[in-house]
Amino acid sequence: MSRLTQPPAGPCAPPVPARELTVVSADGARLHAEVHGPGDAPAVVLAHGWTCSTAFWAAQIRDLAVDHRVIAYDQRGHGRSPAHPVCSTRALADDLEAVLAHTLAPGERAVVAGHSMGGMTVLAASARPRFREHAAAVLLCSTGSSRLVAEARVVPMRAGRGRTWLTARILGSRAPLGPVTPMARRILKYATMGAGSAPHMVEACARIVHACPRGVRHAWSLVLERLDLDDGVRELAVPTAVVAGSADRLTPPVHARAIAAALPLCVGLTELPGLGHMTPVEAPDLVSGRIRELVTTYVGRTKDTKDTKDTKDTADTEDTTGAVDTVGAENGMDGTDAENGADGADGADGADGADGADAHAKEGA
Predict the structure, then answer these.
(1) What is the 3-state secondary structure (H, E, C) of the chain?
(2) 34 with 73: CB under 8 angstroms?
(3) Can you tell me the distance from the alpha carbon of 28 to that of 158, in angstroms, rounded to the nearest whole number?
């Protein structure tokens, strides 16, 4: 049963799927998945971020399902997927592979889009055979591959050990977020969205984030704290576009630039001025447009290295929203945290100071 007792309404209301199914992952975790749009249309697979759900992709689903088969799923413990004791990047990769196997025909290619932890899911799966069988191209939105806590700017302090320590305690808090109040909306907007975000967008994100169980939120925060998927970036050998908000406090643009510089086949880095972490909600048309471009260019086509390089060299730099597009940006994230082996996250105590933290400051996604 969905935890969204009051799902987002209006333009952010989740569309009704054509089909719902339960996908069983390698370790038995059960995942809620949805299929939208015509059954014979080009496929798009959407992976949401930490503390979110399929509802986060409402705008993209509504737009793309007119002429695409859109597959969205809830990460384990999120949305309508039950919690599972194993929380790790390996589990994220297993889950994505399971969704691809259950929703796509053998050899069928799709564009895979991931936001935040969904992008990290793609990086975790990048070297997997089944991912490489099915992924024709990738869109990474507001994500990172390592040093997430050290680079986060949620806490308004100078970078250093003090800020890193406090950020980890806040993001790893076990405290309940409580109801969506005006104060909760203001804090969520500060932490995760740009200053110009429309009220209905803030409301939708608040309802989605507040619906995530606090135990799930805490367990996955430990995985993100120890994240090291830099190798996964280098293994992502399909055409990949990157989108980031210039005002993102959770995954600042330094992450997007580092990923774009390290990708084997980056086909564009778009930095959206003034936007925060929730780019698919804050810039729905642009994100949907990037997905459409990738489908048009890569789905159903086999491109050799030369063709892909030509596409990269001539990547579209026009942006109707004033975004700045670059390719091969400077890598500003050469240090890494310890390798993530977070399959024991459910029993870890890395947020032992959380009981004194401000619960609402944890509204990251």
Answers:
(1) CCCCCCCCCHHHCCCCCCEEEEEECCCCCEEEEEEECCCCCCEEEEECCCCCCHHHHHHHHHHHCCCCEEEEECCCCCCCCCCCCCCCHHHHHHHHHHHHHHHCCCCCCEEEEEECHHHHHHHHHCCCHHHHHHEEEEEEECCCCECHHHHCCCCCCCCCHHHHHHHHHHHCCCCCCCCCCHHHHHHHHHHHCCCCCCHHHHHHHHHHHHCCCHHHHHHHHHHHHCCECHHHHHHCCCCEEEEEECCCCCCCHHHHHHHHHHCCCEEEEEEECCCCCCHHHHCHHHHHHHHHHHHHHHCCCCCCHHHHHHHHHCCCCCCCCCCEEECCCCCCCCCCCCCCCHHHHHHCCCCCCHHHCCHHHHCCC
(2) yes
(3) 43
- The type of residue at 197 is S
Structure tokens at 166: 């406090």
pLDDT per residue as tens digits for the range 167-214: 999 999 999 999 999 999 999 999 999 999 999 999 999 999 999 999
Distances (CA, A) of 149 to 60, 94, 99, 170, 336: 28, 25, 29, 10, 11
**C-alpha to C-alpha distance for 41 and 46, rounded to whole angstroms:** 15
Spatial contact of 118 and 49, defined as CB atoms under 8 Å apart: yes
Residue-wise pLDDT for 340-364, tens only, equals 333 333 333 333 333 333 333 344 4
